[in-house]
Amino acid sequence: MLKRVAIIICLVVIPLLIQQKTSLVKPALAQAIQEKTVTVHLFWGEGCPHCAKEKLFLESVRQKLPFVQIQEYEVWYNSKNRDLLKKVGDELGLTISGVPFTVIGSNYTVGYASDETSGIELLGYINSCVTQGCTDVVTEVISRPPLIPTPQPTVSPTPKPAEPKTEPKILDIPLFGPTDISNMSLPLLAIVIGTLDGFNPCAMWALLFLISLLVNLKDKRRMWLLGGAFIVASALVYFIFMSAWLNILLFIGFIVWVRVAIAAFAVAAGVFNLNKYRLYQTGCIVEESESRKKTFAKLKSFTTNKNFVVALAGIIGLAFAV
User: Where are the bilayer-spanning segments (predicted)?
Assistant: First the structure.
């Protein structure tokens, strides 16, 4: 309730600030302030629910604040708007990985959580442009003529790249409410992701079996080295997979047919597993028991191998395999 009151206060205070400003200055300057407009540049995607929520909020702002103009750029199906989004990101020193992406002057927001969080932030940027002035970065990028290559290169001073600023990225997490994930430390974020992702049952059972084998070894040094190598190698595999998936998702995030294909695959997998549950309601089904027996046999052979280098290499390779 208090957050909604804050939005109403912002929508009322900004026009009052403009009215007060115009009453204290010369008539010519007052007219210039009244004629001043603030342009909100919204990069959005067709079918994006967060984009639709922000568009409704911006429309209500435009109706209450007539000096606010909304410029919309659909980027999922429009390649020109996608190119413009990349240019704006380069200008701001950002790698934009999702929509909605909103630019007001030189300030920007990524995503849209709710009217009470992201909406308040947008109103603050509008107020800043009205009271202090701002440079419209998107308009400047659009107005620049295209670069024409010249046959002879010219030496020019290298411009200093803009330092990317850290903007609050607020997500509405169940049980925790609106949370600024930009303030979360990397270890804490890793713990949250790991908890949500669960664990790899295959690797977990392989680790338990390996521990049962290592306990019987009389050489404690060998036991710790082989067990630690398996854990470190498993962690390295997850790190490689996460890094690869992150880069792949950043690359294909704006390709519509890829998102559709992934969604179709997810639905098909869900239907398959639900049908499997319907057919086999008596309990769990253990499949490929022979392959699991081979995995355990390899673990046993590696741990009992007298050559430590061979045993270590085998344990690491098995960690990558499971």
Answer: 188-211, 223-242, 248-272, 302-321
Residues 145 and 225 in one domain: no
Lowest mean pLDDT among 27-36, 69-78, 151-160, 219-228: 27-36
| pLDDT of res. 136 | 92
Q: Which two structure tokens, joined as six digits, stand for 258?
A: 């890829």
Question: Does residue 59 fall inside a structural domain?
Answer: yes
So what's the pLDDT on residue 209?
Answer: 74
Structure tokens at 274: 């639900």
Give the range with max mean pLDDT: 32-36, 81-85, 212-216: 81-85
Task: Please say if the pLDDT value at position 22 is more than 60.
Answer: no
175 Ramachandran zone, left/alpha/beta (phi>0; psi -120 to 50): left
Please tell me whether residues 203 and 93 are part of one structural domain: no
Rounded Cα distance, 234 and 214, in Å: 17
Question: What backbone phi and psi angles, to 5 degrees, belong to 233?
Answer: -65, -40
Whether residue 167 contacts residue 108, with contact meaning beta carbons closer than 8 Å, is answered with yes
154-189 b/e with 16+ CB inside 10 Å = b? eeeeeeeeeeeeeeebbeeeeeeeeeeeeeeeeeee
Long-range pairs, 200-204, Cβ under 8 A, ≥24 = 200/234, 200/322, 202/322, 203/234, 203/319, 203/322
- 258 assigned to some structural domain: yes
Give residue-wise pLDDT tens across range 197-215.
Answer: 656 666 677 777 777 777 7
Report the distance separating Cα 321 and Cα 224, nearest Å.
Answer: 21
Tokens of 30: 């007052």
For 223, the domain range is 199-321
pLDDT of residue 236: 84
* Residue 189 lies inside a defined structural domain of this protein: no
**How would residue 71 be classed by pLDDT, with cut points 50, 70 and 90?**
very high
Q: What 3-state DSSP class applies to 180?
A: strand
